[in-house]
Write a structure and sequence with these properties.
heterodimer; A: MetI-like fold; about 0% strand; B: about 350 residues; alpha/beta; six-stranded mixed β-sheet; 14 strands
């Protein structure tokens, strides 16, 4: 494999990491409040607002039911509005983020729902406001679950990022398609696959390691 | 912590009812509950599951609202309080739970600090008081451990320290010892009694175990089907239970059951021919330890047969429960003698 190819692989890896990182961070920042709200706004709950909950739920489902490759193309005008262009790696972050937000919101919603309702009751009995309950009880207690959820999101986004070549986004997936497939360079294809496997493994291991660190539910000597 | 800020507050339930919406109408969980909890007392509410005791307890800090009637704590109406006013009342009412409800993500210290963080207490003050509270429940050595590393009894101690953090006037105990083994239960109950004595705060506890109340409660209310069927001082409830529910709760606790071979032969009517009357005697107060039966036997010349019995304590006051039999024709005479010595008697039946 030539030095040129190795450079291309390195560059593509950087682009993939860049897209996934930015999409994950924005997705988490936007997904967290949505997820918390989805978890707490059903009838009779902390922020009881069943109608808003329903509408938001439908919106989240709608976004999630569009196949990613369709989403990329369908929101091109929106991408152009946000990124100034609809082509290139930075532009590709827009559809990745749009896909990440509802996904992460659902994952956070699930993690928060797992928190024992007895803790909410205890906090209410202490005179906590709903916002205090969310900040001091629900999010810290759900943190192991949230961490694992974000790990899952990162792994999925690495997969999604391979499709953004359709709008001129670069990265490992794009490299694999253009060189490995269209130019019949099986060594490039193999290298791309190996790097993707390594990235996913690393993301998964890191996520699980962090989740273990923040999880105080079991004694530390339980063993890994 | 200064005990002078922690005087107990009175709790009153005035005609309290609660109905829940259910399929095909509403279900009455509580009906016409009148109950006055004296400041500084330890009052126990006992009932089977589903009797409404939990709903009743949760009204004191507004986790449940009454459908009818009024719930007052320290002169303030909890039932109608909302928002900031309700949260202020809640800070004066601590609560401990059967399953502890500690945050797994926080250490002992962090859990005890939580109510103060919520109340906006300055950080330095939180640190100081957290240390005091942890010392009070005897967990200094475990202050930086997580709940998962603690035993049930230790977790409940954290729960108690946390409940005391905002200097409440009332402590609510929701089956706080039901998940603990008997020995741990005793240590937790002792701690609660100590807190009640030292800080003078009112403790209202619900339980399904009469033994828990015998050990620390000064007053007892028995709840059945959403109504209070009997209430009074613990000693009176234990020595003279009036309601069948109370008796059935007591039967496992006081050692007064008739031996099986006699219970099977017992008849309510006096049979023809020679028979013996079975009498339950409740010895009260100091007389509980007097040799009254021997005296009676000598005075009346009645032959007394002791079938079962026990001397127990409610709080620190002893009472005895004895089942005896005497010849049926002398029964009235024997009971009159005992009553004249301030003992309670009850005819359980006859054995032919």
């Amino acid at each position: 494999m030539s030095a040129n190819l190795i450079n291309m692989l390195l560059e593509a890896t950087g682009q993939t990491l860049y897209m996934v990182a930015v999409a994950t961070v924005i997705g988490a920042v936007a997904g967290l409040p949505i997820g918390v709200f989805l978890a707490c706004s059903r009838k009779g709950e902390l922020l009881s607002a069943p109608a808003v909950n329903k509408v938001l739920g439908i919106l989240v489902n709608a976004t999630r039911s569009v196949p990613f490759i369709i989403l990329v193309v369908a929101i091109i005008p929106f991408t152009r509005m946000v990124a100034g262009t609809s082509i290139g790696t930075t532009a590709a972050i827009v559809p990745l983020t749009i896909a990440a937000i509802p996904f992460i919101a659902r994952l956070i919603e699930n993690a928060i729902r797992e928190v024992d309702s007895g803790l909410i009751e205890a906090a209410r009995a202490m005179g906590a406001t709903p916002l205090q309950i969310i900040r001091k009880v629900l999010i810290p207690e759900a943190l192991p679950g949230i961490t694992l959820g974000l790990t899952l999101a990162v792994v999925s986004l690495i997969g999604y990022s391979a499709m953004v070549g359709a709008v001129g986004g670069e990265g490992l997936g794009d490299l694999g398609i253009r060189y490995g497939y269209q130019r019949f360079m099986p060594d490039v294809m193999a290298a791309v696959v190996v790097i993707l496997i390594v990235l996913v493994q690393a993301a998964q291991s890191l996520g699980e390691w962090i989740a273990r660190r923040v999880d105080k539910r079991a004694p530390r000597n339980r063993g890994a | 912590m200064q005990s002078d800020t922690l005087a107990g507050a009175a709790i009153t339930f005035d005609g309290v009812g609660k109905s829940f919406d259910a399929k095909g109408g509403s279900v009455m969980a509580l009906e016409g509950v009148d109950l006055a909890v004296a400041p500084g007392s330890i009052t126990g509410i006992i009932g089977r599951s589903g009797a409404g005791k939990s709903t009743l307890l949760r009204m004191v800090n507004g986790l449940e609202r009454p459908t009818t009637g009024k719930v007052m704590v320290g002169g303030r109406d909890v039932g109608t309080a909302k928002g900031a006013r309700l949260r202020e009342i809640r800070r004066e009412v601590g609560m401990i739970f059967q399953h502890f409800n500690l945050l797994a993500s926080r250490t002992v210290r962090g859990n005890v600090a939580l109510p103060m963080e919520i109340a906006g207490v300055p950080a330095a003050e939180i640190r100081r008081r957290t240390g005091d509270l942890i010392a009070r429940v005897g967990l200094e050595a475990l202050a930086d451990r997580y709940p998962a590393e603690l035993s049930g009894g230790q977790k409940q101690r954290v729960g108690i320290a946390r409940a005391l953090a905002t200097g409440p006037k009332v402590l609510l105990s929701d089956e706080a010892t039901s998940a603990l083994d008997p020995e741990t239960t005793q240590t937790v109950l002792r701690l609660l009694a100590e807190i009640n004595r030292d800080l003078g705060l009112t403790i209202l506890m619900i339980t399904h175990e009469m033994a828990v109340l015998r050990d620390i409660a000064s007053h007892v209310a028995v709840i059945e089907g959403g109504r209070i069927v009997e209430q009074g001082e613990t000693y009176d409830i234990f020595t003279a239970p009036a309601h069948p529910t109370t008796r059935s709760f007591l039967s496992g606790v006081t050692g007064v059951t008739l031996p099986r071979f006699l219970a099977d032969r017992l008849t309510a009517e006096r049979p023809g021919g020679p028979s013996r009357e079975v009498i339950r005697i409740t010895f009260l107060g100091e007389r509980a330890t007097d040799p009254l039966l021997a005296e009676m036997s000598a005075a009346l010349g009645v032959e007394v047969n002791i079938l079962a019995g026990a001397i127990e304590e409610v709080g620190a006051r002893p009472f005895g429960n004895l089942l005896i039999s005497v010849p049926a024709e002398r029964g009235a005479e024997a009971r009159a003698y005992l009553e004249s010595h301030q003992q309670r008697t009850e005819v359980l039946g006859y054995v032919g």
